[in-house]
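We close this part of the discussion by returning to an individual protein. Part of our work consisted of pairing the sequence of a single chain with a tokenised description of its backbone. What the numbers capture is local backbone geometry rather than side-chain detail. The amino acid sequence and the backbone structure tokens for this protein are reproduced below.
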Amino acid sequence: MKRVLPLVIIVALAFVPLLDRNASHISAYADTGGLVLLAFGLNIIVGYTGLLALGFAAFFAIGAYTYAFLASPQFGIHLNFWPMIGVSAAVAGLFGLVLGAPTLRLRGDYLAIVTLGFGEIVPQVLQNLDKWTGGPDGIAGIDQPRLFGFGFGFNPVPYYYLYLAIILVSLWLLNNLRHSRIGRSWMAIREDELAAAHMGINTTTAKLAAFSLGAAFAGVAGVLFAAKLSTVSPSGFDFNTSVMILAALVLGGMGNLPGVITGAVIIGLLNFLILPQATNWVQTLGQQMHIAVLASVDLNQYRFLVYGIILVTVMLFRPEGLIPSATRRAELHAEASSGAPAQADG
């Protein structure tokens, strides 16, 4: 049953564009796939290794702008999309090493503040270096993928299938990575870094690998994002994006791939589909009923309020997330479990 269910889900997802012909819906599903890839990357850093990173959108921006620099009229360079997936992933991974090398001696809140600063610096640099980056307006006219002579253009369906294919490959890779030697090292560091070091694990190398691989996933998501929109600008990579990725992780269950996917899908659909659609419905209702407040409401402005309500509710009633890993569930419920026998003895 455990093997049949994933196959059923994959087949069902493959038929979604055939059942839902609304292009805006398919585009929202594709954008949700991008959030899944970003959540995969942050899960390596936060979920597997236990490092708190708050500026993850910076690596997303680096991947997107790498493709924009090398596949647009900006510098007259037009490299092929497919090898650029690997190039952008490598560049983002390199920046992960650059950030990680001097900062991984920090822990907890201090590491979070440093990564937050990095996340704020990158969009500001992209905005101020307007000679190369286009400034606040960004870079337009980015090349879009072609496969066997077929151009993707602005049709969201090919991008949907591309996201789906890359997510499946990423799942296979991450599942093998989790059970590999480096994956077990990450788990050991998350549980107790000092104990892991005494067991012979090179914690510095393991944490650098986590930062680099996590950043590489963000780089891949950045390439797909830039190609789909055919434009990038610094405003798309601000702190709000980092919060959205982290919220998806906390909601679904850190350290567990099914939970990560679930959280990313919920947050993604809420952001890209449900709130925009709800805004249209409320505005239409307000126009028909001649209620000015409803006719001018924009629910997209309240998306972080909605995220906050969801996260507070989850933290109160299911702090380990919707689909947590067994280890994290045991960690969060250890106190309650150990307290039960004591009460019974009394």
In short: The domain at 23-334 is CATH 1.10.3470 (ABC transporter involved in vitamin B12 uptake, BtuC). The first helix runs from residue 4 to 14.
